[in-house]
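Following the same procedure, sequence and fold were stored together, as reproduced here.

>
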Amino acid sequence: MLTARDALCPWVERVTADQRPPTGASETAVYAVFAPGDEPAAAGGGFLGVVTRNQIAPYPGRIFADLLPRPASTPAAADTPVDELIVRLDRENIEAITVEERGAFLGAVTRGSLLSALLRGELTQLQSAPDAPGLTESLHEATLRLLGLLTGHEVETDLLQQSIETLTALLKSRYGAIGIVDEHGGLVHFVHTGIPPEQAARIGQLPQGRGLLGVVVHENHALRLDDMSKDPRSAGFPAHHPPMKSLLAVPISHEGRVYGRLYFSDKLDATPFSADDESLAARSAGALAMTIAHHR
C-alpha cells in the first residue's frame, strides 16, 4: 500500500514566515513555513504550515505568513494511504497537506506528488511482472482511474507529464506526447517523453497539428500506421524531430468536442501497434477528455 511517505514532494523548500515569496517560483514549488526567528532546517517546533506556488503566485509582495491556509489543515501521518489523502484534498479544498511522523515535520504532499506516487507504483508492477496473467488489463484500468482522479481540477502540466510517461511505458513505445488545444486549435499544453532535452531544444517549434496530427484532431478518429513514410499525410512534424516509423494517434475528445491528441511512435520491440494498444490509448484519451471537459 502506498502511503504519504511514498508521495512526499521532493521540491519542498523551508522558509520563515517573514520572508517574501520568490517571484520566479517553479510551477511545482511547495514551501514549508516556520515561525519568524526559527531555524528553517528544524524538524519540529515553529512549523506553521505549507503553501504552494499556485497560492503565492498572485501575491509576490506578500510574506509567507499571510498566505498560509486558514485554518491550517491537520497534519497527516506518514503511513496515511495515498487514496485517503487525495480524497482529503478535495474535501478540504486545499492544495497541500503536511506530513508528520511522531510529531516531527517530514514534508508535504500535493495532488501532483500523490498521483505521481500512484503512477510509479503501477509502473513498478509492470516492470516486476510484465507477463503476469491479467496484469495488462488491470494496469489499463488503473491508468484510467488515475486520470479520473483529476476530474474537476485544473489539468496541470506536471500531471500530464506523468500521464504520458506512464502510458508510453505501458505501450512500450519509444516516444509519446499529449497535445491539448484551445477552441481555435492552438496548442495550450504540450508534453512529451522519449526525446532527450538537448534534442527537444533543437526542435524548437511544437507540432501544430498539420498532416497526420491534423487528421486525428480535425476528423476526430484514431490512426494506427505501421509505416508513416508510406502515408502521404505524414508531413507536419517539425524539423529535427526524431525519425519515427510506426504511429498510434488518438483524439482527446468528449461528446463531439476535440480537446487535443495523444500519440505514440515506434514500439521498443519493433512490432506494430496492436488493436489492444489502440484501445488503451483511446480509453485513456477519453478519460482525459472528460477531465478537461469537466474543468472547462
Notes: Residues 150-154 have pLDDT under 50 and may be disordered.
